[in-house]
Amino acid sequence: MQMRKLTPEEEKLLQNFVTDVYGPVYFIHSLPEFIIPPINSKVSRKDTSWRLNILESLTDGDLDITEYLPKHSIPMERAIEKAREFHEKWVEKFGHSSIAEQHLMHLCVEDVSRLLSGDIELMNRRPAFIEWSQRYQKPTREKVVIPPELEKEPVLKEKFLKVWNATYDAYEKLVKVLTEYLRRAEEKKEGETEEKFLNRIEKIAFEDARYALILATRTSFAVALNALDLQDIVRKLFAHPTEEAKVLAKRIVEQGEKIAPSTLRHLTPTPYQMKVRERLKDISEKILGDKRAISSDDVVLLDYTGKGTDFSPVDTVVAHILFTYSGKEFVEVKEKVKAMKEEEKEKVIKTAVEEIGEFDHLIDAFKSVRFKFQLKISEANWHQLLRHRTIIFDWTEPTVENGFVIPPNVVKAGAEDILIGALKTSEELFYELKEKMPEVSPYVVTNAHKRLVVMNADLWAFDHFANLRCTKEAQWDIRETSFKMLGLIREVAPQLAFFMARRKRA
């Protein structure tokens, strides 16, 4: 991310609010909590460091925060020392981990690979992330993470850089071709100026051209989390197969110690964490072999609550509703539901969702039913899907072996050859790296290549997901997947699907 050289006065000012003025990893601190989200939110669509956004807000930006800052002077060194003594006594000696749970932290990580950022977001379901967006911004050619492992392999490093440049060349060509196509194909909205029209179609071009980019492309993210969850993530980073992750873990600890004295402890991964991945990969290969059976179905309904029984998903939801609002024992309620007519059950469901609005959530009784899907989706799609924190995922490693996705606009613009050429270039190096340096091979997988994922969602979580991802504002790839899943739910339980995707959509 862009970070200019600061004046001495600016450096001195920022040092009050970030743990490192220039480094790629730092924590934001000493700002009122309600100020931090709008500062963070700018980054998804603006290629500047969070620190510059803070500085702007402290001076002449659109978010003037100076009046909200504490006016008193606190001797921080002494306060930190007292906090350290407290943590050593209560956290270390007596094991009160709840203290670490109460310590809210704001971590910023700049210029990390797209590969690692996705893995980090899956390491713990509780933290809240916001990320630099390839949908709204155009990465520059220097925005690539060169895996540290390649420094010892100059020939492979040279091949890696050739692949990066080839795929980035394809990306730039696609942006140009798509912009020209969209200028002809898209109509201006009512009252839309030429400048706004060009800006809008440029974003669409970015969105589709990014399918040529590899997972080594740099991104940045901010995350709000407590110290206990940070410990968990740091341990997993140290156990991660890539050197990039281990370097990042060390930087996080170094910066975290500046504001969380004695809280960041027990950071060494256990023998289990260090070995379980390879052990399970070995046993899986022995049992299943390395051959792949490629199916044509990208969305498959694997299982759902009540499948193969005489108690349907509708029966389960109705039973949980009646149990919750009657006060009667569940066994009695279940027997009653079995005897009910279908129209009676439907009436209960309709009553439960009567007048539900675009931004309302279902009642908790809908969490009693789960649907499990196997998805074969692009990395671009997956990086959006994994952000849904209430859904449980099992995921495979990035690969080029499951095929790829070509955006419809690329087809319409007659630019398939540009994208396919980039994909083939990445695939050649992927197979070589898989043989020689398997931990590095995922870096050259593109956003277009498909990953296998199992998505396990209760009906409450799926309703929230569909309400966001079936709208016309949603990115086309994840929207198509969302409608396919919704269609499969409608086939087996139409009474539980009629109220979904209720926000305005195309």
UniProtKB/TrEMBL annotation:
Keywords: Coiled coil. InterPro entries: Thymidylate_synthase_ThyX, Thymidylate_synthase_ThyX_sf. CDD domains: ThyX. Residues 168-195 form a coiled coil. SUPFAM superfamilies: Thymidylate synthase-complementing protein Thy1. One of its GO terms (biological process) is dTMP biosynthetic process. It holds the Pfam family Thy1. GO terms for molecular function: flavin adenine dinucleotide binding; NADPH binding; thymidylate synthase (FAD) activity; thymidylate synthase activity. The keyword Transcription does not apply. PANTHER family: FLAVIN-DEPENDENT THYMIDYLATE SYNTHASE. This is FAD-dependent thymidylate synthase. The lineage of its organism: Bacteria, Bacillati, Bacillota, Clostridia, Thermoanaerobacterales.
